[in-house]
Every structure is written in structure tokens, then in C-alpha cells.
Amino acid sequence: MRIHNLFTDASGESHFRDIQVEWVEETPAGKLSTRLPATGIIFRHVPPTYDLDWHPAPRRQYIINLDAGVQITASDGESRVIGAGEVLLVEDTTGKGHLSRAVAGTLRHCIFVPLDEP
Length: 118
Fold this sequence. Notes:
single chain, mainly beta, Jelly Rolls, 6-stranded mixed β-sheet, 4-stranded antiparallel β-sheet
């Protein structure tokens, strides 16, 4: 299972990398990872006109798209469409940040799972 990860390097540029989930247990119901720390859950409704200029992430958090995708562009120029059912870990809380915009003019519902205290 892949998690998209957006992070900032020492010069303030944001970049993508992929993180693979490590499975530590296998049960009749499926494979499990270790329990990861989180500080809450936020539900978000994003309009189909969403188009946000350069911004850093407000906090380290997982973003889980439920029913539509989002296009994210890192400051190094790489652009990815994070689709429905995919997970993005944003850690670019400093520097130039990234661009975010709706894809296909579609309403999106997603879940934010913050990793840092509010």
C-alpha cells in the first residue's frame, strides 16, 4: 500500500516521495500495520471550484480522499493527482508549500488525520 508523502527539504522546496505501509500482522480479516499516533480527525467538504495558490500545509497530517481526487503540485514542479481512496501525508509545513486544485470540477469529501497537537 502506497502513501504519497509531500515534504520540505533543507532549502524550503517541497517534493514528493512514496512511503510503503509495512505490514506487521496478518489475520483472517487481512493485514495490519502498526498503530500510528494521531491527534484527531477532521472531515472536509471541498467545492468543485477549489483552486488554492501556494501554501504550506497547516500541520503534519494524513489526507484521505473518499470520493474524488485533488491535484497537488510541489514547489519542485512535480504534480500528482491523488485519487479517491488514496492517502497523502503532508509534511511541507514550512517553505513555499504546494498548489492544490480540484480535478474534473468534482466535489470532494476527505478526512484529515492530524499528527501534531493543535
